[in-house]
Amino acid sequence: MRIRSSALALTVDDVPASSKFLADHLGYVERMAADGFASLGRDDAGLDLMFMRRGLEVLPPHLREVAAAGAIVAFVVDDLDAEQDRLRAEGVELTLPIREEPWGERLLLVTDPNGVVYELVEWAETEPGR
């Protein structure tokens, strides 16, 4: 198998709200949209995101009413402090401000209007030989 690209589809109640949040605050570009559907991407992300409106007929019956919950979409970034400052300046409420984990992960969380959680991650530099 050869994978040519990757995408994550999330079911939400308000597709335009999630699409706008991703475009306004995380630099994604809406590449395709229709009633109840939007596909967004970034040339540098390696992962496209799609939003589908809950109840959409194209979804299998057992998944039509299941909203995205419990998933966290994570992006590794170069300067987490700068990203936190930028998001705050844009008026984004931080779900979790920068936090450092003992295993070397620095992260922050933001949540879009549909409850989709995005994690921005920066890995701490490790000492040589560790």
Automatic annotation (TrEMBL):
Gene3D superfamilies given in the database record: 2,3-Dihydroxybiphenyl 1,2-Dioxygenase, domain 1
Pfam families, A to Z: Glyoxalase (PF00903)
Signal peptide: none
Domain VOC per the UniProt entry, residue ranges: 4-123
Domain of life: Bacteria
Protein name: VOC domain-containing protein
Highest classification ranks of the organism: Bacteria, Bacillati, Actinomycetota, Actinomycetes, Micromonosporales
